[in-house]
Design a protein that fits this description.
This protein is α/β, with parallel strands linked by helices and 256 residues long. The chain has two domains: 94 residues, 60s Ribosomal Protein L30, Chain: A (2-Layer Sandwich); 149 residues, SPOUT methyltransferase, trefoil knot domain (Alpha/beta knot, 3-Layer(aba) Sandwich), CATH 3.40.1280. 36% of the residues lie in helices and 19% in strands. It contains ten helices and ten strands. It has a six-stranded parallel sheet, with helices on both faces. Strands 1-4-2-3 form a four-stranded mixed sheet, with helices on both faces. Helix 6 runs parallel beside helix 7. The relative contact order is 0.13.
Amino acid sequence: MPTRAEIKAWRSLHRGKGRRKTGCFLAEGRRLVGEMLEWPGRTVAVLHADAAEDEPELQALLARAAARGVRTEAVPEAIVRTLADAATPQPVLAIGEVPAYGWADVGDGTIVLLDGVQDPGNVGVLVRTALALGAAAVIGVGETADPWGPKALRASAGASFRGPVFRTDTGDAVERLAGRGIPIWVAAADAPPLEASPSGPLALALGSEAHGVSALLLAAAARAVSVPLARGVESLNVASAGAILLDRMRTGRPFG
């Protein structure tokens, strides 16, 4: 049984302060826990409701955890509800160490910069979409929600475990990209529509729907692009706009 101190520490993982203090994150549900058991990072513990321990899918997850030497604990359902962030929690969750991704892990390809994207659901969807479309990394800057928060992780459907996903400050991102000779393209509602795919690596910056990207990224940008919209439609959700732009950039299909 986890100690009171452990439960208190794991409960704190709902908040950024708790994740920064412990260096850990909380993943909920069968799918995310299953993805964690495939990644190279450290899974600290897998907890499951004791009333559900005869469930075949859960037994398979626990067997995989045991094969990796991961600590597993059966706990009362009340503890699962206490630790879980979801309104209707599944009977299994895991605690993992936040991976120390950085610029050294970023390979060739499009880099997605999320600048001030505060909704964790949008952050998670963009992580999932970007990595599915071959992005080299997803990097949060400004006031972007923590991609390792529980809501963002659920929205990513485990994609966060399959590629470099991390945060830095805007100035560092601009400096690092300039040092690599990688241009920044920003998505902006009033920009010309994207007409052709890039000829080499670049960084696509997506800002908040309310404010767009920061002045620092705008000043550093080589180009601004947009998704053309039908008459009467003011804007797209940032996750939708990002998915469309990334797909068009990857395939080279112009808007017509």
